[in-house]
Input
Amino acid sequence: MQTAVLKEVTIDNVIFGLDGNKLQILLVKHAIGESKGSWGLPGGRIGMNQDIDAAAAAALYDLTGARDLYLEQFRAFGRVDRARERVLTIAYYALVRPESCAIAPGESAEAVAWFDIKDVPPLIFDHREILDFGLAFLRHKIRHEPIGFNLLPDKFTLLQLQELYEGILDVSLDKPNFRRKMTKMNLLVSCNEKQQGVAHRAATLYRFDPAVYESLMEQGFVFVV
Amino acid sequence: MQTAVLKEVTIDNVIFGLDGNKLQILLVKHAIGESKGSWGLPGGRIGMNQDIDAAAAAALYDLTGARDLYLEQFRAFGRVDRARERVLTIAYYALVRPESCAIAPGESAEAVAWFDIKDVPPLIFDHREILDFGLAFLRHKIRHEPIGFNLLPDKFTLLQLQELYEGILDVSLDKPNFRRKMTKMNLLVSCNEKQQGVAHRAATLYRFDPAVYESLMEQGFVFVV
DNA sequence: CCAAAAGTGTTAGCGTTACACCCATGT
DNA sequence: ACATGGGTGTAACGCTAACACTTTTGG
Output
């Protein structure tokens, strides 16, 4: 076995957002280099003295202006690029509230935009594979851990939550049963507050409390949708 | 952001085996370098023109002499080592039948041995974290995909399979219910053969057929233990 | 009043759980 | 005979799926 000398190690972020009940993904159009003019996943490089998670968070901050977003590594991908140099990329997925961040193209991008997950343009390199892998990861994870709330406002209705799952998992759910399932978990905390200015009966607003989840976990509770 | 120049990118393999109903892990004792004399995960480097999966498979082959083992990447880990150089490692886990491979220490190891998962010695670097992560990954995966068979002989009894799950998940299962669950899946193929030379009623031998699993999947079947 | 969404109630059926029990075989 | 594991039966329970129904609100 020989020592590898890599050209570089990069970060690729699969950034998910939600528009109503439609799952969106944030892409950038590259302004320089071999892939100029094509859409791809936003990313960055890993600084020499930087934790890889920190590098991913920094790349995410540069693009969205938001910190403390839900961000998790899901896999490393290797490929040999056009110049026959090995490129290694570590892929993360993030959950973002689109309305609460100020998207700005970085130096090397000429455009940034949200795309419906069902209408993604051709992507550079192996980014389509990375996206598909990240989406599968999200679909699995969101059913087994209460992370979906990161895509919703702090206060949300049960219907919003249901539409989130319907949008991400691409299924339709029975409203009464979904409500019962959620409320029976004792995971959601009522805000004792109602929706405002809607043209129908106002729904109760709920919030997700990580502390409640912690204490339920200690009692052996397992989140499943 | 600055360009990273890594000292190296390595592979770490978390290699699982089964001894009866006890989950085992394969460790090496390092013979050279800063970690001489300590136990750690076996690994290797990534060749320049090598797929990262191939690099992991090669490292596994060097150690076990076996090919085509179950091997899957689960995560990349970054750390800054003693010389303040960044080290990046990509971690894989493998499932092995201990009796069907010839373990041999490579050049840089003075010993190789199986350890009970509940009795692992202190490990170098961040290998304990990697091991824990890999174990959690295995425990999850083995419940949702039929990969456990890679730890058993081709032909096995239902009790062996049950003990596999009990050992890996560290739970005890009800025998009648486990049997029914497995047989009702129609996933296992009877070999029309019985155990030989046992001091009790001989059990039926079964095998796992990937083709059967494929066809069940097409009908929407989902494997869960 | 109507539309739209919030909520509640009810039932059949399925799967899991827990445990009792009989069967076959080598020592 | 007995220990050991193979293998079957069954009843209670809880959860889910499916759908009918009532309630509240703005237009």
